[in-house]
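Assemble and predict.
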Amino acid sequence: MSDSTVLLAVFEDIEPASKGIGVLQNLGLSDDQMNVISGIPVKEAILGRPAGRTHVAQIAMGGAVLGLLLGLFLIYGIPYLFPLDAGGQPFYPIPQGLIICFEMTMLGLMGSAFLGMFLDSGFPSYTPKEYVSEISDGRIAVLFHCPSGKQKSFTEALIKAGARSVSPAEARHL
Amino acid sequence: MSAIAKPLIGSHATEEEDPRQHLMHDPLPRGEMNAMVLDSMHTTTWKYWTLAGILAFVVLTCLIYAWYDLIMEGLGVTGDNRPVYWGIFLVNVVFWIGISHAGTFISAILRVLKIESRRPFTRAAELMTTFGLVQAGLSVFMHMGRVWLSYWLIPIPNERTIWPDFHSPLMWDFMAINTYLLCSTMYLFLPLIPDLAMARDRSTGWRKTFYRILAIGFRGTEGEWKNLKTAMNIFAFAIIPVMFSVHTIVSWDFAMATRPGWSSTVFGPYFVIGALHSGMAAVAVVLFMIRSTMKNMKYFIRPEHFDTLAKLSLMVSMAWAYFYFNDYLVPWYGGDQWEKILQDFTQRGPLGWLWYLMLFCNIVVPWSILWNKKWRQTPWLMAIVGLIINIGMWIERYVIIPEALTINRMPFTWQIYVPKLEIFLTIGTFALFFLLYLLASRLIPLIPVWEVQEGQESHMLRKIGKAHISTVSEID
C-alpha cells in the first residue's frame, strides 16, 4: 500500500455512508481496503460490507473448559491431596462438585470473553490512530486506501454520494 | 333489546398519544445527547458537595471507626450471642446481594428479551450491582470478626497444610459471590467503553487522561464493535444463570442446616425472587434520585421507564407472595412442633409486628398501587413504593435470620437478639453505597448514550390505518 493515501470520509448518517461505500466499491476498492468507524454498531449488511469475523466466542469457550478443569481440581483434587474428614461426608461428591464446577466454568467463560474482546481488538492501545471525534457524535467515517493520483476523483465521488468531508487521515493520540 | 351491540369505546378512541413522550420517538442529535450527559456529570453544586461530605462523615464514623472498634474489641461488642450468632451482618449480606440482582436482571434479561425501554437505565442498574456487592462483601468481612484471616478462604497452600473445604455451603457462597462480583464488574465495563471514548473525545485536563486510559483506545471500528457486541451477548446470556445461582447458594447457607425455619427445599427460588423484588424496587428509587438531582436527566429517564419497572415489580411481588406462601404452608401443615413454635413466635411473639409489616410492605403496598397506570408513571410515588418494598425485604431477611435463630430445639438457650454496634455498621454500608454512587455519577456516564441512539435509530412510526404504530428494526 505504499502507493496509496489513507483518506477518511465522514458521513452524517447510515444512508449516505452506505452509498459512499458503494461508490468506493464501484471505483475498484476491495473490502479489505476500507474500514468503517461508527458511534453505534451497524450491521454489515446495511452498509454493504462483508460479515466480520470475531474469535471472542471461541476464546470464551476455551476459557469455559479451563474453568471447568479448575472447578474439578478444586472439588476433587483438593480432597485427594489434603483429605479432611468433615462429618463423614464423601470425599468426591457429585452434587457439590456440580456447584463449584458450574461457578468456575461460568467465571472462565465470561472472564475469557472479556479478555478475548481485548485480545481480538488489540486493546488496550494508546498509540496514535486515525480518528475524528465527530464519530462519537453519531457520524460514520469510512477509512480507505486511495490509490495515488486518484485522490481528487475519489473525493468528488464521495462528496457527491453525501460525504460531509473527505480528508487525509491523520493518526493522532486519542 | 337491540340486536346491535354498543361498541366498547369511550369518546377519546380516536385520539392518538404524542409519540414524543417516548424516548425512542423523541430523538435528539447524538452530539446534543453527549453534551447533555457530560454536562450532568460536570455539574456539581454546593448541595452535591454537602451531601457528599455528610455521607463521607457517616462512612468515616459509622463504618470505618465502628469497624475499627469491632476489630479492637472483638465480636462481643455486637449483639451476636447464643443462640443468635448470625445477626444483622448476615441480614445485610443477603439484602445487598438482593439489591445487586437488579442490575443483572434489568441489563441482561431485558437485553436478551430485547425490551427496548431498558436502554437509558441499564447502567444505573449495573452500577447498583457492583456497589451492592461491595457492601455485601464488607458485611461478610465484618461478620468474620478476625477479618485479617480472611485469606484462609482462598485455596492456597499454607503453613496449616489444609485447604478450604469446598464441600461447605460457605465456600460455595464465597465462590459464587466472587464469580458474580467479577463478572458483573466486567459486564458493567463492556458497554461503558464506547461512552468512555465519547467522554474522552470531549474532555480536557485530568478527565481526558482518566477517560483515555479507561477507553483503552476504542474508536468504533467494525471489528471493535463486532468483538464488543459478541462479548456483551455472551455476558448477557451467561450472567443470568450465575445471578440465579448466587442467591440460590446464599439460600443454601441456611437451607442446608436442619434448623426450624431454615430447612426448606423452596428456599432457592424464594430467595431469588426476593432478591429481584428488592432489586427492582431499589432501581426505581435510584432512578428517581438521578432524575431529580442530575441535570438533563428528565429527557432520558421518563415516566414510561418507571412504568416498565413498576409492571415488573408488580409481577415479581406476586411471585414473591406465591413463594412465601409455599414456604409458609408446608411447615405449617407438617405439624413439626419446633416449626409450629417458631411460626407462633414470628407472628405472635414480641417481634410479631415485624412479620405483619413485612407482608404490608411487600404485598399490600405494591398490589394497591402498581395496578394503576397513572400511579406507575409517577416517579416520586414509584420511589416511595420502592423504598417501602426495600424496608419490607430487609425485614424479611431479619425475620429469616436472627428471628429464626432465636427459636431452636434447646429452649433454655432462647433469647431475643438485640443488635448493638452492627446498627452503626449497617448505616455505614448504606452511606458508602450512596457515596460511591454519588461519586460515580460525576465520573462515568450514567446514561449509555450509544445504546439510546441505537434504539432511536431502530425505532420508527409506521402508519397503519389511521394510527401511527411504533415499530422496531434491528440495525446491529
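The longest strand of chain B covers residues 459-464.
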